[in-house]
Amino acid sequence: MALVGCRPHMAQATRNGPRAESAAAAAEAPPRRRITKRKVVEDRARSYFEAVGARDTEAMVEHWTEDGVADIVPYGILRGQGEIAAFFKRLFDAMPDLETSVDRVAATAHLAAVEWRMSGHFTGAPFMDLEATGRRIDLRGLDLLEIEDGDIVGNTAYYDGASFARQVGMLPSEGSGAERAMKGAFNAFTKMRRRVA
Questions:
Q1: Is residue 179 included in any domain, yes or no?
Q2: 18 CB neighbour count, 10 Å cutoff
Q3: Please, which residues have CB within 8 angstroms of residue 93's CB and are 6 or more apart in sequence?
Q4: How far apart are CA 6 and CA 87, in angstroms?
Q5: pLDDT lower than 70: segments of the chain
Q6: Sign for the pseudo-dihedral over CA of 85, 91, 93, 99
Q7: How many domains does the chain have?
């Protein structure tokens, strides 16, 4: 009789046995976070810009494939780790106090768009065939990084080249008398060419 009375209890114990307990524990445990490709790409882009911010060209090129291509739109195309490192070394030598910050990163499984700011003083070595002027430079730009298997294979970088030229003193300030005179001379030359053609 005692065994018969135990059967419902045993059945209950079997239903709520170790499997049921582990399922209940799993339900209470926080869900495991899956690392997505987008997150890997975003993290790699942020890591690259940390190296830029540290002015560390060796750490920067470690993020690139050997044959990566950087298209710096106002400047030109750089091919391979050597050219990319050389360009940034010249930039950092020209502006020894250059600071880089990231405002925003948006990523997909293969691309990262990084909105950045750079500021510093052009007090060092010549850059882009320009002698140092000592002036402060403040630039905003956007890099579109193409990342495959954790390495950058391509980058298209945009910033306002005319703003850079104004800030270093190569072009007159926007709205200044010198700028109006330059535009007037350009327009006069354009009209003269039309007459001759």
A1: no
A2: 7
A3: 124, 125, 127
A4: 82
A5: 1-27, 29-34
A6: negative
A7: 1
In this structure, is residue 126 part of a structural domain? yes
Q: Are strands 64-72 and 76-79 parallel, antiparallel or unpaired?
A: antiparallel
Q: Which two tokens stand for residue 98?
A: 């250059």
**Does 20 fall in a domain?**
no
**Residue closest to 47 by CA, chosen among 35, 37, 33, 61:** 61
Residue 177 sits at φ, ψ, to 5 deg, of -60, -40
Beta strands in the chain (DSSP E): 64-72, 76-79, 99-107, 111-121, 136-148, 151-159
Count of alpha carbons within 13 angstroms of residue 192, beta-carbon side: 6
What pairs with residue 140 in β-bridges?
A: 117
Which residues are within 8 A (CB) of 57 and not within 5 positions of it... i.e. 6 or more apart?
85, 88, 89, 92
By the 8 A CB rule, do 88 and 95 touch?
no
Distance of CA 14 to the CA centre of its chain: 57
Range of the structural domain that residue 89 is part of: 37-159
pLDDT digits 0-9 by tens, 19-76:
656 555 555 766 666 678 999 999 999 999 999 999 999 999 999 999 999 999 999 9
For residue 113, give the CATH number of its domain.
3.10.450.50
User: Bridge-partner residues for 99, per DSSP?
Assistant: 119
